[in-house]
Amino acid sequence: MSALPSARAMPRQPGHVPGEAGVWLFIAGDLVLFSLLFATFLSYRADAPEVFAAGRAHLDQTLGLVNTLLLLTSSWFVATGVRAARRRASRTAVACFAFALACGLGFGTVKVLEYGAKFEAGLTPETSDFFMFYFAYTGFHMIHVVIGMGVLLAMIAYLRGRPPQAVNLQHIESGASFWHLVDVLWIVLFALLYLLV
Amino acid sequence: MRALLLHRLSAIWLLLVLATVASWEIGHGLGISDHRLASVAIVVVAMIKVRFVALDFMELRDAPLAFRVAANLWTAGIAAGLSAMILTA
């Protein structure tokens, strides 16, 4: 019975699925849903290019850039944390996941500041189709970030709560895969909402 | 710690940061004057970034073939589909 944890301590093998099947089903479903959201955005944009150009001009691209760099960096921390957990270096893994969590908090803080500035300037979801999409899509994504931060906290608690040899890496990989999904979705949202010219 | 830092993942992170800054510059009119082509370039760079996150950070590079095929098909499909929508808008 004790064979499972030590077997899971082996280096990643070719053909290895990172995480549980259920997480991958969720990721696949989410990607299909967001694919439709991306296409819907471009479809509306094609019908009213001037409205979308005006909306984009009101966004702070630098804040979008900062948030993208924060999530990319958080993903690096999470991927590195998974490598550390695989080496049974739980303390390093916990530190990596904590830094990733800090990046997530930074992302959320920037988003709150951004929303605040928009509302202060009188820009709301009712301002235009662009802002309807902006608030809906970034809001929906922010829900993913909050859930992801909860997952990171759970991963930290899980690692701290048991000896390194007793860690089931599949749990860690599942949480990590979800966090990377949050990063992937933002990469596309940043391009579509903030950058398209 | 050294082994964790000096790893392919760190090079991928640097590549992703550089690609992000490059697409930010394209979005600010650097390099490509035609706005549709600039938008296509931004989408393509974004999907290349997604592919690296999926293959290297999500570790799909060593996953079973079906996972790699799905990841590549999705990134290529989204890049092609969104680019087509931008070009025909």
Write up what this structure looks like:
- The complex is a heterodimer of chains A (197) and B (89).
- Chain A contains seven helices and no strands.
- By secondary structure, chain A is an all-alpha fold.
- The radius of gyration of chain A is 19 Å and the shape is elongated.
- The N and C termini of chain A lie far apart (58 Å).
- In chain A, 80% of the residues lie in helices and 0% in strands.
- By secondary structure, chain B is mostly helical.
- In chain B, helix 2 (8-27) runs antiparallel to helix 3 and helix 3 runs antiparallel to helix 4.
- At the A-B interface, helix 2, helix 4 and helix 7 of A face helix 2, helix 3 and helix 4 of B.
- The residue ranges of chain A in which pLDDT falls below 50 over 5 or more consecutive positions are 1-9
Terminus-to-terminus distance of chain B: 50 Å
Low-confidence stretches of chain B: none
> C-alpha Rg of chain B, in Å?
15 Å
Rg of chain A over CA atoms, rounded to whole Å, is: 19 Å
Please describe the biggest sheet of chain A, giving its number of strands, its sense, and whether it closes into a barrel.
none
What's the structural domain tally of chain B?
1
**DSSP E strands of chain A, number:** 0
Please state roughly what percent of the residues of chain A sit in beta strands, choosing from under 5%, 5-15%, 15-25%, 25-35%, 35-45% or over 45%.
under 5%
Q: What is the H/E string of chain A?
A: HHHHHHH
Number of helices of chain B: 4
- Biggest sheet details of chain B: none
